[in-house]
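Message: Study each token:
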Amino acid sequence: MPFPAPFPPIIPRRFFNPAGVLSGLFLLTALCLPAAMAGPATAPDETPVVVIGLSPVFRGNTAAARLNAVADGMSRAVDQAAFAMIETKALSRDFSRYQSLVTGHTNDFVDSYQVLAEGAFDKVYRVMMRVSVSRETLGSRLFPVFPQKTAAADAAPPDAAGPADRKPQVLFLMSEQSLSDVDPRFWWGSLSDDGGVRTESAMTAPLVKAGMEIITHDRITPDMPLKSAIIFQPDLDNALALDIGRVMKADAVVAGKAIVYKMPGNADESETSYNATVTARLLDVGTGRKLGDTLETAVTKDTDDAGADTALDLAAGRAAETLAAAAGALNAAGDAASQDGGAGDENPGRVYLEITGVRQLGNYIRFRRFLTEQKGVNGLTTESLRGDEARLLAGWNQGAGALAALLKQARFSFFTLVIDTVETDRIVLSLSPLTAPSEN
């Protein structure tokens, strides 16, 4: 009797329950599939997509994480297929509409999938999958709303436009807390929901009109050395926002937060007032400079909670218009930064800091925050973070000696800073935790 075909088989999507359950009968059948089923030809209507789905592993439950990673992979595959079918600019202009058409409907577009490899590492379960997406079904949902990508657009490589034609790439790092939210929602947090925030959609049009392109982010925390420092941070400081911007290849980031709440309405309570507040700032990733910031509020009255969305749209739109006016400084800021470089320096405008004692992550984050708040520090990048050692790159035009002198004068509540070596563009230092005096 021949041995059954090797697992995993091709799995028709109708057997996949997005809630996280696979039919036991199907599992028994799958193990006995003949070898001929291991690699069926792709139907003409199908687009095969290879993706990697991810999911955090909570409390060691790898089985649940695997199912969530498969669902994430299917969602990613549908997104990739959609990006190949519709014009990117049209998608970026109305991304919220795209989400409403696709999010939560993955099974409508996936015909089958095959798991190619899988495993858990560093509390994240990853599944490499080949997913067959139905172009006909996906197109019937998208083409009435978005223009189909032309052959000419497909043939042109992404970087075909010259530098003069390239538009600045902007990444949203906005958190949002609406009426139904117990905590703020933000896409870079691994414990947040799907990260979709209304604020981004309301802010997109003014920035696009100002000549910018919006980066389409995912729902997974960016892969960066200080990942644990951002997953619980709905309100990022400038240093962390710039770090995420560099990882996501952005020219600028819009960072901030939005909140909306109810207020007492008229005397007969037939209407309710809704107050929305949006704070946002535009940061140049290349120079680390803040190009503009704003605080906008809007108050509306309505008979139901739709008034909350209206207030949020108004406040976010005004904030975007203010930042769009400052967006023209992106190129100018880059030119000014290049002119500020110290003459005669071997490596003008940057200093490397090699740090030990970062195993206590809180102290390292406090040290980074202190640096970002100092006048003259233009951008801060974590180049590596391994074990008890870290390497930072600071934008600084006055030389390593001046930065070391500044650090020697600093006093910290939870650790002492010891400088070991100072070179032309390099400082070696350590962070030593302060211990509480013992009680006799």
Summary: The chain has three domains: 1-156, 167-339, 342-433. The mean pLDDT is 75. DSSP finds 14 helices and 16 strands in the chain. Residues 167-339 form a domain with the Double Stranded RNA Binding Domain fold (CATH 3.30.160.150).
